[in-house]
Amino acid sequence: MTAKTGKTGKDEVDEVEAVPAEEQAETEEAASGEAAEAAAAPARPAAKRKRRVRVIEVIDDEDLDEVLEALDAEDAAEAEAEAPAEPAAKAAPKPAPEPVAKPAVQTVKPRPAALEPPEKAEEKEPARTDAFSLPLVPTVVLAVLIVVLGGLAIWQGTSAHSLSSKQDEREAIGKVASAYGDVAYNYNAANYQTQTDKAMKLLAGDMLDDYKKNTVPTVASAFQADAQVVLSSKSNQVFVGSVNGKFATAVLMMDMSLKTKSGAINQPATLLRLSLSKIDGDWKITQQYPSGINDQNRNQQQGQIPGVPSGGGSTSPSPKAENSEKPKN
After folding, report:
1. Burial class (CB in 10 A: 0-12, 13-18, 19+), 11
2. Domains of the chain (ranges plus CATH)?
């Protein structure tokens, strides 16, 4: 037996409609795949985008806030430009077989670049130079120069003090020698005792002993024999010689005269060589040597003026008046 099969109109309609349904599924699948690719395409650059970092070498603390605000404003502008692409990607259907790439999520990361400028500024601060942060070599040279100048100033001060001290000593010696010339040979019958006492205060050592032993008795006997005798002396100049510690030399130039009832003897520019010693802080005359001959007194006999000790222990001759002829009866 054979069975006859036949297709009804309904079956034909089903077969005709089945073909478009499959094609429509394939079309929808292709469209969803393209939409997924289109949605994923703009999201990829956002994942690969690199952040730009601005490095500021030197930045002040006052400008730091302004720089951070400018960077935040740029990030906000970029986020607003990317915002319209995100809803289109979300509206597209997600295909089942292929996972849809998620849009990149923007995260705010700490910006080390904003903190680097102060560190760089701090690193550059030691490089600044001022009067108190000089290099090593100039500092050493300056220190050595200061020490040298300080030593020179001390030496000059010491030298000046030494010169001043020596000058003071020479002035003191000159005063003693000048005072000796004014009192030692300036006597008369009324003041010889006072003058000899003043003279002895300026003497010391052998000179003082010789003055007491020889000069004082000679002067006293001369005025006792003739009260009209007048011996005068006046210091003219003093030349200070060497000064060696407590010892010194000087030359005294003075004008001397002797008056008696018989006449007068003048000895101008008489020179005495003196030796002095510093005793108990005061300069004293210890020796003297008479000298001094010039055109005015070279014809006169030396040693005619009384009271001039020789310094060697010998006494001076007694005064001698000039010889005068007695009238004949």
Report:
1. exposed
2. 166-291 (3.10.450.540)
> Which amino acid, 41?
A
| 3-state secondary structure at position 293 | coil
CA distance readout (Å), 13 to 5, 19, 20, 27: 17, 10, 11, 21
What's the rounded Cα separation, in Å, for the pair 140 and 328? Answer: 102
CA distance 309 to 317: 10
Segments in 213-322 forming alpha helices (H): 216-225
- In sign, the C-alpha dihedral spanning 283, 303, 317, 190 is negative
3-state DSSP call for residue 250?
strand
DSSP 212: I
pTM for the full predicted model: 0.44
292 pLDDT band, cuts 50/70/90, is: low
